[in-house]
Every structure is written in structure tokens, then in C-alpha cells.
Amino acid sequence: MSGHTELLDSPHQLPAVSSPSPPPAPVTIEAGLPPAARAIVSSHVVIWTVILTFGPLGLPLIWLSPKYALWSKILVTVLTLGVTIVLPIAVTIYCSQFLIHPVLDAMHHANAAGGAI
């Protein structure tokens, strides 16, 4: 058994490495997705169909998609959540002002006149 021992001149000196290791692969969100999910996340048509149909439930698709920049993901998220929150409030106020109040006023005037509707 012939053992070869290399003495180093200083404690910080390392022996030469024969070949450099390859650089690590870039880590992306979609790297862990199955191929079918990658196809869904990469399709603009599917993403916009889900967002326009189901609203905020489609937001994870746009955040997993590598095709959109960060600023566009934030913009779509803010707009989607804004419409989801503001639209029901606006419809409620509209229905209250133009549908329910006239009926309540008519009932109040009828009761004041001595009869009920």
C-alpha cells in the first residue's frame, strides 16, 4: 500500500481541484410543479379566463407564472382585489339608494295617510 501524503506550506493552502463543479441550476417557483400545472401556469388564456371567471381564486396562477413581471403581478392583484371588494359595496349602495329607499318611503307615506300597503 503506497500512500501519498501532500504537505501544505500554510494552513490556508488547499490542494488543486481537477475540474470546477457546474453552477447550480436557477431556482424558480415553477420548478416544483408537475408538467400539466406548468402548462396551465404558462398559458395567458387560461390565467385570464380563471381570473375573469373566479376573481381572486385565479391570483395564484398569475403569481406562479414566469411570464409576468413583478410589477404586473402586483397591478393585477390590486385591481382584482379592488374590483372584488369595491364592486359588491357599490352594488349594495346602489340597491339601497334606488331600490329599497323608494319602497320604504312609499310604505311610510301610506302608513301616514292611514293605510298600509
From TrEMBL:
It comes from the Bacteria. The chain crosses the membrane at residues 45-64, 76-100. Keywords: Membrane, Transmembrane, Transmembrane helix. Residues 1-26 are annotated as: Disordered. This is Uncharacterized protein. It comes from Blastopirellula marina.
